[in-house]
Amino acid sequence: MPISIGRRQFLSTMSSLLALVGLPFTGPPGARAADVPLLQILRDRYPRVFAFRQAEVLANLRDYSSWDTALRPLAGVVGKLIPEERTDTVTERNIRYFRQFKKRYPHKVTLLHLNGRSRLPTFETEGWYAGWWLYQAGTLTVESLTRSATRISVSDIGRFELEADGFGNLWEDLIITARKPNGKPNFAIVEHIRLVRINTAASALIVRRGQYGSIARAWPAGSYVAAHATEGPYFPGGQKLWCYNLSTLSPRDSAGRHVIDAMIDGLQPRFASGGSLDFLDGMELDVFSLGGRRTAKIDADGDGVVDGGIRNGTDTYVLGQVELTARLRTMLGPNRFLLTDGGLGQRANTADVNGVELEGVPSTADFDICKWSQALSILRFFQNHGRSPVLSYGMYKFTPPFDPPTRFSAFRLAMAAALFSDSAFTFYDEPVPGSTLGLKPGPDAGNFPDVFTIWDEARGGSLDTYGWLGRPLRPAIHLAEKQPDLYEGAGVSITDDFIAGVKGAAVIQRVSTSTGAHLCLQAKTADLEVELPPVSVPGPDLVLAFDAYAEPLGEFPVTLPRIVTVTVKMSNGSKLPILKVPVDRSWNHLVLSFRPLPSGSSTFCISAEGTERLRLRRIKAVAFPDLMYREFEGGAVFANPSDAPATFDLGALCPTRSFRRLSGSPDQDPATNDGNPLGSTLTLPALDALVTVRS
Questions:
Q1: Is residue 438 classed as helix, strand or coil in its secondary structure?
Q2: Which residues contact 252 (CB under 8 A, 6 or more apart)?
Q3: Contact between residue 454 and residue 396 where contact means Cβ atoms under 8 Å apart
Q4: Has residue 433 got a pLDDT over 60?
Q5: Phi, psi of 377 (to 5 degrees)
Q6: CB 211 within 8 A of CB 194
Q7: What CA–CA distance (Å, rounded) separates 64 from 224?
Q8: Over the stretch 491-526, which tens digit does the pLDDT of each residue have?
Q9: Angle, nearest 10°, between helix axes 408-420 and 372-385?
Q10: How far apart are CA 620 and CA 589, in angstroms?
Q11: Is the peptide bond before 534 cis (omega within 30 degrees of 0)?
Q12: By the 8 A CB rule, do 678 and 650 touch?
């Protein structure tokens, strides 16, 4: 009897079989992820490693054959294909290379990298309404201007400042407009100008007129002048990027259109069938928050007054982000990925977003890796709650001035966080000296490598196999959770004494359920903030483990996570890093670590935006480093994110298995990956991890 299978099943099966033997599966012309649902990066084999924006850079440095050879051992590529942010690494070759790569390897993921906050002012802005840009609150001119005037006297010189960019240049982009009868700026007629000097004593701006294609005009006294909210530039000679006004309060053009309408109009034809990006599996929105410094100065509704985007206590910029991701989801359809940045202060609506990018792990500037548990919590949250098919990834990367030689230990910790959270992984530094990192001169200047090397841990060293660890055998284990509880069970049972020790301007209640008791907290007037009972800590490590359930903020979708902040207040007044983690309306298990602590009394401070209820249960405090391990079919991963060496008892943790170190490359870290077997114990140096092979 003949066996009949469908086209999708056939394509998926062939892709899987050929990938196992290392052969490309080309499929029919135009095959897409929708035709091959089991992308390599979604398979239950770890580590799930793909190439980040090296793919974008190398496309302009290599012929296709050598580019393909370098990248095909991994599960896919992500990079810029349109020059909305940079023009030095984006040419017609980018799309051509990515398209050919997807055609040859339909089981590998291809993603567009797009700035989610800003763009170059000269990128496709014909017909762009000036009110769609985000501005700092401005001021008025005190005298009329001719078309050739380069000195502008203003009523409040304090609204402007000059700050050198990453290349030492000192300038800011401004806008000048007339005002409507109601006194608000008239963004229909504007001139863009460049501020080059501030004469504070004379309350005057020294400027260059008629910039970015605008026309120098004569302006009456009382015209409005404001600074663009900007970032960058990101390459030598580049322009600053102007931030979008995503706030729902943003001015709209005469047709009632918002900046989100313009963004979708620019992207939709590209992703539509026959468009230049129709082959892609989706996109990632990088930098998806404003940040406190920008928020403190912005005027979202365009009335000339600082509002931070807040209206009646609601963050209207975040509301705009929710609208943008919903519109992008509709544009992309159900079978493509939509990812956003997942760094500190950034969050995404899980109804529309498949996952997040966590750049730096913990962050690009956390050189001491103090927020490793925060990074792990963010990755876990979006892996557990993202839209299906879920795809989140951590990335090893540090921002200059950190230069090679690379910290191999930091790379291993970043990869361990991805492996512990079931996330994918990528990297943006080279494992050998000689890479072009930082803002340096040369043909490959910028945060980009000039070579491409796959790390030993990614390929299994001499195993040289993608997904060599195989499937996880069990969830990652926090050894701290097995240590004595400083609360002696009072935070688990939520005893009367424990409740009496909780302080804060909030309603504090004990709620009993069939699954045990929990603490219910609700702020009375402002944001929720409480202190748990103090604990005596011998130092230097302290771990807080608990479950959290956050009622959603009333103005936002229930699928938008709420940010919970945890820190430790020491009796001697010293401060520790502030950890911020997303929590939603389900029980989220959190394990947060703090270091280094002096001995003495410590108090956990927990806060959450808004007055809505926050529920806590199974609260434990442990004076122990956050040591972790996880077993896979092909090996095991161990992590020590503390400031002192730590020993793992392998005989007790993995009594029926034995492991050896990777047989690594001689030009990476041969002292660590020497191929030797592990004994009954493993001692890891401070701030290090080890990825091992099963013997």
A1: coil
A2: 129, 131, 258
A3: no
A4: no
A5: -65, -40
A6: yes
A7: 51
A8: 999 999 999 999 998 899 999 998 899 999 999 888
A9: 30
A10: 12
A11: no
A12: yes
In one-letter notation, the amino acid at residue 3 is I
Judge whether 582 and 540 are in contact, CB under 8 Å. Answer: no
Smallest CA-to-CA distance from 588 within 376, 420, 393 is with 376
Pairwise CA distance, residues 379 & 42, whole Å:
15
226 CB-near residues (< 8 Å, 6+ apart):
135, 136, 137, 138, 139, 159, 174, 175, 185, 299, 304
In order of 61, 447, 450, 580, 595, the CA distances from 88 in angstroms are 11, 12, 14, 35, 41
Secondary structure of residue 367 in the 3-state scheme: coil
Tokens of 583: 């929590």
Q: What is the pLDDT of residue 399?
A: 65
DSSP per residue, 371-408: THHHHHHHHHHHHHHSPSSP--EEEE---TT--SSP-H
CA distances from residue 87 to 233, 238, 241 in whole angstroms, order as listed = 11, 8, 12
Q: Is 362 helix (H, G, I), strand (E, B) or coil?
A: coil
Question: Which is nearest to 457 in space by CA: 478, 427, 477?
Answer: 427
Taking residues 592-617, report their average pLDDT.
94
Instruction: Dump the DSSP string for 224-266.
Output: EEEEBPEE---STTPPPEEEB--STT----TT---HHHHHHHH
Provide the β-strand partners of residue 452.
none
pLDDT at 576: 85
Model pLDDT for residues 334-386, shown as the tens digit of each residue: 999 999 999 877 889 999 999 999 998 998 888 899 999 999 999 999 999 99
Residue with tokens 């298995």: 657
Question: Which has more pLDDT, 210 or 33?
Answer: 210
Q: What is the CA radius of gyration of the chain?
A: 27
Phi and psi, residue 676, nearest 5°? -75, 150
DSSP label of 324: H
At 623, give phi and psi (nearest 5°): -90, 80
Q: Provide the pLDDT confidence category of residue 107 given band limits of 50, 70 and 90.
A: very high
Which helix (H) or strand (E) segment is 565 a member of?
A: strand 562-570
pLDDT mean across residues, the chain: 90
Query: Could you read off the pLDDT of 121-173 as tens digits, one per residue?
Result: 999 988 899 999 999 999 999 999 999 999 999 999 999 999 898 888 999 99
Q: In whole angstroms, what is the distance from residue 71 CA to residue 50 CA?
A: 8
**pLDDT tens, 654-672?**
999 999 999 999 888 999 9
Q: Which residue has the tokens 């020294």?
A: 206
Q: State pLDDT tens for residues 307-321.
A: 999 999 899 999 999
Residue 432 reports pLDDT greater than 70? no
The residue type at 18: L
Rounded to 10 deg, the angle between the 92-104 and 64-71 helix axes is 50
Q: What is the mean pLDDT of residues 417-434?
A: 83
| Cα(684)–Cα(579) distance, integer angstroms | 25
691 — phi, psi (to 5°)?
A: -105, 120
pLDDT at 22: 37
Number of other residues whose CB lies within 10 A of the CB of residue 47: 24
Give the Cα separation of 33 and 110 in Å (integer).
Answer: 9
User: For residues 58 and 67, is the Cβ–Cβ distance under 8 A?
Assistant: yes
Residue 404 confidence (pLDDT): 44
